[in-house]
Design brief:
alpha/beta, Rossmann fold, 4-stranded mixed beta sheet, 13 strands, globular
């Protein structure tokens, strides 16, 4: 029993989230996968909060790699990011564009015609599928433009990875990782939450004067070198 307690404690330290299923015979411990992600790299960000609630149209993401079904993958992953922004109520109005991205000028024109303030799109810059036992890695750059002027307001790069593991047999227990069938969605969901918290701070904090002013960046992801720039204002 002492050996089992020591092994279980070791798994808690390693994973942070486990589920123990007591059975007769060898014990099984299920471990949630850990998504490792870099600190968001903010290249452009507004210095001022918006003066009123804004509407945003988000287009399907584009995949910058030569892979099969790139358009479908970009649309699905972009929709995951959009769903999380909607769930976090980042903007007063959010629309998901069904047509492919055709450039800033055309997207801003369409947004103005619909009475929407902002245009957002994303580029998937790294996409590696590792399955249940390999390493899945994903990175994307999220950009947001002011529809009225076409000015770039936000440019943020996010990246993360999750490692699958085969079952690990210890002397008194077996560790199984509860890896989803499509780990890339787990990674993009985690990154979308980080992005949503950053954008939510901009739209909801009257004292916003840039991402550094909130101290949020150091609480998102893991520490890594960052670079930043600023857009001079926001719509409204």
């Amino acid at each position: 029993m002492k050996r089992f307690a020591v092994a279980l404690a070791l798994l808690v330290v390693m994973s942070g989230c486990i589920a123990w299923e007591p059975v007769v015979g060898p014990q099984i411990v299920y471990v949630d996968p850990l998504v490792e992600r870099a600190e968001p790299r903010v290249m452009v960000a507004p210095l001022n909060p918006p003066a009123r609630p804004l509407g945003c149209i988000c287009y399907p993401f584009e995949v910058r790699q030569e892979i099969d079904n790139s358009r479908r993958i970009g649309a699905e992953l972009g929709r995951v990011v959009w769903d999380h922004l909607v769930g976090q109520q980042v903007f007063g109005l959010m629309v998901y564009g069904q047509s492919p991205w055709t450039g800033v000028a055309h997207a801003c024109e369409q947004a103005r015609a619909q009475g929407v303030d902002l245009v957002a799109m994303g580029e998937i810059t790294r996409f590696m599928q590792g399955g249940a036992t390999g390493t899945t890695s994903l990175g994307f750059t999220f950009r947001m433009y002011e529809a009225e002027t076409g000015m770039l307001l936000w440019s943020v790069a996010l990246a993360g990875r999750v490692e699958g593991h085969p079952d690990r047999d210890y002397m008194v227990l077996t560790s199984k990782t509860r890896m989803p069938q499509a780990p890339e969605y787990l990674v993009v969901e985690t990154l979308a939450k980080d992005l949503g918290r950053l954008l939510k701070a901009w739209t909801s904090d009257p004292a916003w004067s840039g991402p550094e002013s909130t101290g949020m960046l150091h609480g998102l992801g893991r520490p890594s070198p960052t670079s930043s720039g600023h857009a001079s204002g926001a719509h409204g």
